[in-house]
Amino acid sequence: MPAALAPVRPRLADRILKASGVLWFVAAFAGQAAFILFILAFYGVRTLSGNWAGWNDKPLIEGHVAGDDVGNSVFALHVLLASVMTLCGLMQLIPQLRRAQPPLHRWTGRIFLTLAAVMALSGVWLTTVRGTFLSEISAAAILLDAVLILVFAALTLRNAVMRRIEIHRRWAMRTFMAASGVWFLRVGIMGWVLINQAPIGMNDTMSGPADVVLGFGCYLIPLALLELYFRAGRSQGVWPKLGVAALVAAAAAFTALGVFGAVALMWLPYL
């Protein structure tokens, strides 16, 4: 290969890696937008109309418990604020918006971190005090995710205050991945079911082999892929970039499949 062409390859690999990240973001943006709309249409409408018992129209998790006003209020807060947190988190990941509207980026970032902490703590309360979980394994997965969210959010804020912007950006993305665990879980479940054409390794208490992997993997796998993406971006080699780009592109395809399944089979039927 002529020497003049040698510098082109790393730049091309960088563009391919970045394109894979954009591809995943597009799939995730569409899926999280659909998740926000479902939360507002299902839980929001029932809450505003006073039909709290209607939360249980969607099976598995019992949202409304008769006579438990405190628990019902915490559940409503936890679910409805998830839509605001998700929207603010998505806004943090749009670089054009970040550059064009720095004040908006800062305020939505503050709202996102605050709500992520509130969601983590309310999730801990619902799990440990109210017992809103399907199995001990799923409860452990929820609690570990809550710990990660709180640690990541604190490090995001700390690095922002210290003006270490690049480090702050990486911790913010880690917080987004961990805080999106509930969404990733639903997308992962539907992606797995559609690929296998059956709920292999799953049961109603989310304690089957596939349930355990998805319960913890819904945030640990995205976090691992994010770390690989960061490392590939800093790498000087072409093949690490291309290899990670292939993984991220595959993750984007799986995400798109899971989003389709979640919308068609998990959300729309209950609206």
Briefly, what is this?
The protein has helices at residues 8-48, 69-92, 95-100, 102-130, 136-161, 165-179, 181-196, 209-234, 238-267.
Written description of the protein model:
By secondary structure, the chain is mainly alpha-helical. The protein has one domain. It has helices spanning 8-48, 69-92, 95-100, 102-130, 136-161, 165-179, 181-196, 209-234, 238-267. Helix 7 packs across helix 8 (209-234). The termini are far apart.
Question: In percent, how much strand structure appears in the residues?
Answer: under 5%
Termini separation: 59 Å
Total beta strands: 0
Radius of gyration: 20 Å
What number of structural domains do the residues give?
1
Largest sheet: none
Can you write the helix and strand succession as a string? HHHHHHHHH
Model regions low in confidence, pLDDT < 50 over at least 5 residues: 1-6
Q: What spatial form do the alpha-carbon principal axes imply?
A: globular
**Would you tell me the structural class of the helices and strands?**
mainly alpha
Overall pLDDT: 90
Tally of alpha and pi helices? 9
What is the helix fraction of residues, given as a range? over 70%
Layout of helices and strands:
Layout lengths: L7 H41 L20 H24 L2 H6 L1 H29 L5 H26 L3 H15 L1 H16 L12 H26 L3 H30 L4
Helix pairs in contact: 1-2, 1-9, 2-4, 4-5, 5-6, 5-8, 6-8, 7-8, 7-9, 8-9
